[in-house]
Amino acid sequence: MKVLLVGSGGREHALAKLITSSQMSAKLYVLSDYANPGLMREAELSGGKLFVATTTFPENVVKIAELVSPDLVVVGPEEPQFHGVVDYLRERGFYVFGASRRCSSIERSKVFARYLMWKHSIPGRLYYVAFKSLDDAREFVKYAGDVVVKPARQVGGKGVRVIKDTKAFLSEAKHQVKSEAAFKTFEEISKYGDVDYSVLVEQRVDGVEYTAQVVTDGSYVLPLPLVQDHPHAYELDLGYETGGMGCISGPGHLLPFIDQGEYETTQKIVREVLERLQEEVKERYTGAFAGQMMLTGLWGPTAIEYYSRFGDPEISCLLPRVESDFLEVLDRAARGALSGAKVGVSDEVVSVVKAVAPVGYPVSRDEARGHPVTVDVEKIRGLGCEVLYASVELGSDGRTYTKGSRAFEVVCSASSYEEAHRVSELAVSYVTSLDGWPLYHRSDVGSSELVEERIREAERVRRVYRSKHLRGTLGEFFTVWLPGRGVVGNPLLSPLRWEDEDS
Ligand SMILES: Nc1ncnc2c1ncn2[C@@H]1O[C@H](COP(=O)(O)OP(=O)(O)O)[C@@H](O)[C@H]1O
Ligand SMILES: [Mg+2]
């Protein structure tokens, strides 16, 4: 069976491994934006090949697909979906695993995702207001209180500003910060011409984050185990937001801090969003879908955003845990024949993934770029781990160079987090820089201390949402009393309006 995989990074390397380990003896072809040595190797070992071209140009992808004539095309990242790559391929008769342009608007437009949840009163929704004009956004944030200012579009994990504003005496200073945030967001979003709204201001919540990924053919929904990502750059969740510095998964479908009831509520939210999305865009959803969730005191499971693809690095975390033939699952989804499919998961095994990034990422990517690095794959495998190549490319001298983002992911698994964490720390030591430019990773991902910390945090919010549940006030936003201003209501309304012509 011939498979064409579209995409360039760590997520695609994980998918490549899942595809080539199939019983269906796949010949893997990859279309990547750059010569990722890991993807190149997987393709060549399977008898296929890696092509380099811009993956967001539908014409490029179709050209390669016509050359390869694959039985299945798997589109990994969101940007090709936003650019209509999946639609273009389907129109030409290819079977594709991946969301169409209209279906992927659930990720592309954070406003559309919020709108859909409000329109159908789906639990786990946050109050929000979306703005087209910068002046309106700036005026609004003066009174908005405790909010998050975000780009209204998915911009690759950059630009979300969480502004905790619970101290009345700091209000003036916070106005400045919010106004500046609105301005920067407006600037960033103006690069993209495919959303109507630019600034999204929404209610700030706190709690424990996790990702719920599923595979669907539009009618049958196959849940995968929950995964927790670690988006902050440094230990103890400090520092800048990144694309994800590592993740953990297991045991079973749960996480140590998410219980069965919360898992089920999460799955219900994900299913309902999928169903309503398909009604709204009048198209069948085929591919991976994920809810990026937070367990909050407000609702319990709460939706932060949705992905129209597998999470990166979330899918890597499932690599050592999936026991069934994953290519068969992808193929059946693409053909609309997923009904009855199962993904066997080794319940007792937990996994820990750690990203290794060049210093400079995520704020000074130019400095983080162009450093030769090497990885001792055999040593890492000797530990029972795997290594995935992410933002690295093959140089003309045959060496591997950083491209400015997360360079590698080590993937480890064991019967306990303690052990998986221990081996993951050994595994990262086999990733080295050849020019002395420092690399960093988060040593706390998967550690007992951090897992315990999440359990405590989840317990705290669980007490709050359970008491709200008993009082029938789940999802209700507090009013607050401010000195000199009295009771302040919720300034965030829910505009049930959706004008993005593009969706
Ligand atoms: N409403 C919110 N309340 C609190 N934190 C939030 C909220 N929205 C986002 N965040 C934080 O910001 C991070 C990034 O936001 P998200 O909407 O996922 O954007 P992206 O991943 O596209 O940058 C989240 O993982 C979460 O930690
Ligand atoms: Mg996110």
Concise account of the structure shown:
By secondary structure, the protein is α+β, with helices and mostly antiparallel strands.
Keywords:
single chain, 503 residues, alpha+beta, Rossmann fold, Dna Ligase, domain 1, D-amino Acid Aminotransferase, Chain A, domain 1, 4 domains, six-stranded antiparallel beta sheet, five-stranded parallel beta sheet, 16 helices, 27 strands, globular, binds adenosine-5'-diphosphate, binds magnesium ion
Major sheet size, sense and barrel closure: 6 strands, antiparallel
Rg estimate, integer Å:
22 Å
Q: Do you know the CATH architecture of the largest domain?
A: 2-Layer Sandwich
Number of continuous helical runs: 16
The hetero molecules present are: adenosine-5'-diphosphate, magnesium ion
Q: What structural class do helix, strand and pairing data support?
A: alpha+beta
Into which percent range does the helicity of residues fall?
A: 25-40%
Tell me, briefly, the overall form: globular
Number of domains in the coordinates? 4
Mean pLDDT: 92
Regarding CATH, which class of the largest domain? Alpha Beta
- Regions with pLDDT < 50 over 5+ consecutive residues? 494-498
Separation, N- and C-terminal Cα atoms: 34 Å
Q: How many strands?
A: 27
- The CATH homologous superfamily name of the largest domain equals ATP-grasp fold, B domain
For this structure, the CATH topology of the largest domain is D-amino Acid Aminotransferase, Chain A, domain 1
- Strand content is 25-35%
